[in-house]
């Protein structure tokens, strides 16, 4: 399955006017459905919400530039090792991301958009996981719980 950059960009444009409501909803959904990840985050989330919004916007803005997207995602993956994130956290994050986008897109959300975001999230997961594993090996930390 591959993602359609046009669907990614247009669906993000549809939710973008909601701004900070998107990241607040995302984290509420993530923590409500996966309370075990809450300790990985600061108590006050405003800065983290801004980081997420900027990362998501940067990803969408560069979605057709494979080299830029790979660079962004590898950097994020490497940094997330230091936060205690693990590759097995990705399914929960992906479910919350899709739920958030679906919620704010409303009737504009289609099965094709869902499929495209799911495929893009697969790329995100694979790229960040690889960078996390490499960074963890370099620091002597385990990148997974196996």
From TrEMBL:
Residues 1-133 form the Globin domain. Keywords: Heme, Iron, Metal-binding, Oxygen transport, Transport. Coiled coil: none annotated. The keyword Protein biosynthesis does not apply. InterPro entries: Globin (IPR000971), Globin-like_sf (IPR009050), Globin/Proto (IPR012292). The keyword Iron-sulfur does not apply. It holds the Pfam family Globin. Belongs to the globin family. This is Globin domain-containing protein. It comes from Streptacidiphilus monticola. The lineage of its organism: Bacteria, Bacillati, Actinomycetota, Actinomycetes, Kitasatosporales.
């Amino acid at each position: 399955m591959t993602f359609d950059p046009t669907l990614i960009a247009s669906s993000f444009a549809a939710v973008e006017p909601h701004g900070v409501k998107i990241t607040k909803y995302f984290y509420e959904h993530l923590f409500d459905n996966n309370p075990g990840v809450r300790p990985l985050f600061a108590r006050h989330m405003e800065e983290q919400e801004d980081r997420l919004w900027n990362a998501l916007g940067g990803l969408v803005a560069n979605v057709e530039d494979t080299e830029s997207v790979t660079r962004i995602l590898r950097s994020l993956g490497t940094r997330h090792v230091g936060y205690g994130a693990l590759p097995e956290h990705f399914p929960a994050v992906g479910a919350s991301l899709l739920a958030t986008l679906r919620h704010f897109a409303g009737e504009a959300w289609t099965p094709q958009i869902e499929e495209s975001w799911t495929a893009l999230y697969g790329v995100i997961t694979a790229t960040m996981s690889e960078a996390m594993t490499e960074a963890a090996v370099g620091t002597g930390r385990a990148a997974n719980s196996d």
